[in-house]
Amino acid sequence: MTTWTEFTAAAPRIAEIFTRRHAATSNLCMLATIRADGSPRISPMEPRVFEGEMWLVGMPDTTKFRDLARDPRFCLHTATVDTQVTDGDAKVWGVVRDVQDTELQQRFAAHLFEDIGLDLRGQEFHPFYAADLTGASSVEIVDDRLEITIWKPGEPERVVQKT
């Protein structure tokens, strides 16, 4: 599995597009999970990058977190507001792991408070999901061509062009 830091080193083009689009939408992404009956679920999510990991943290006991507890596979897609994709678009996928480390959670809460003013300091996080990435892709319009960049762990990014 691959951490966010490892991903950004291995797939800089996709990471740059994901980071840019993530920031442009106030950190909003769409999270795909798998329901108990096997059908997909799409939910809004504001993933955070902290201490080299991407974290999927939010209100406990929601359907998306019940989905991840049952089946840790996910896909996270940057929120698309431009149907022409002029600023690019990206997604990452993988599996989550629940990290129950109180000191780490408190550092995360302090960082969240400093960054956006949300005060969760002193609270426990159940779950506290780190994203282990198993793939990613992005799309961009370059010189009137669609360029699709694809990455898998252990391989370099590769670009497919469509006219």
Automatic annotation (TrEMBL):
Residues 25-114 form the Pyridoxamine 5'-phosphate oxidase N-terminal domain. Gene3D superfamilies: Electron Transport, Fmn-binding Protein, Chain A. Signal peptide: none annotated. Keywords: Oxidoreductase. It holds the Pfam family PNPOx_N. InterPro entries: F420H2_bilvrd_red/Heme_oxyg, Pyridox_Oxase_N, Split_barrel_FMN-bd. This is Pyridoxamine 5'-phosphate oxidase family protein. The lineage of its organism: Bacteria, Bacillati, Actinomycetota, Actinomycetes, Pseudonocardiales.
